[in-house]
Design a protein that fits this description.
196 residues; alpha+beta; eight-stranded mixed beta sheet; 8 helices; 45% helix; globular
Length: 196
């Protein structure tokens, strides 16, 4: 949840401005990328979960292969020393989105991203958040339908350093006590062999 102090120092971005700012941060990433995900599904056309629910495993495999190519291409833009960490809040029973996303997390893990999962409601403190090199934070605000509504960008300076440090400490503490996605999610072995 974004508090008044964050709102005071953060810059409000349009979704287009966010896309540009994200790309700039990604291309200049040198050390660490952290991300929290809190929604159980997002208001996007989610072909992967639809394919999985419909047991269209060929389509699901195709989607995962495209995703793998996209992430692999993105990762090639980074130096090999960049640490990538993702923290996912989960409620049970799992949504269809998360049932497909657990296979996505397996792909991300294979490509070097460390994905951890927690049922601890504390994970939702900042909603969805992205931290680039301990310098820039994006706070993503979604409506009840899971559609992105607002984005706030916070840059490190003498006034905001303590806010960014607090968010990083919060992330690291929760990340370290969370379970790896491989341990948490039980993948269907037949589907896993077919699509991964």
């Amino acid at each position: 949840m974004i508090n008044n102090e964050l709102l005071h120092y953060a810059k409000h971005l349009t979704l287009r401005e966010y896309g540009d700012a994200f790309n700039k941060c990604w291309l200049s990433l040198k050390q660490c990328f952290r991300k929290t995900e809190t929604l159980q599904s997002y208001g996007v056309d989610d072909e992967a979960s639809i394919a999985l629910v419909n047991k269209d495993y060929d389509k699901f495999k195709e989607i995962l292969a495209e995703f793998r190519k996209y992430i692999d291409m993105d990762n090639r833009l980074l130096t090999s020393s960049v640490s990538q960490k993702r923290l996912r809040y989960v409620k049970k029973p799992l949504s269809n989105y998360l049932r497909s996303e657990c296979y996505v997390y397996r792909v991300l893990s294979e490509l070097g991203q460390e994905v951890k999962v927690s049922e601890d409601k504390n994970i939702t403190k900042y909603d969805d958040m992205l931290i680039f090199d301990d310098q820039t934070i994006f706070f993503l605000i979604f409506n009840n339908d899971g559609e992105m509504q607002e984005v706030f960008q916070l840059e490190r300076n003498f006034q905001t350093g303590h806010i960014i440090d607090e968010a990083i400490c919060w992330f690291d503490e929760n990340f370290n006590k969370s379970q790896s996605s491989e341990e948490y999610f039980e993948l269907d072995k037949q589907i896993e062999e077919w699509v991964l």
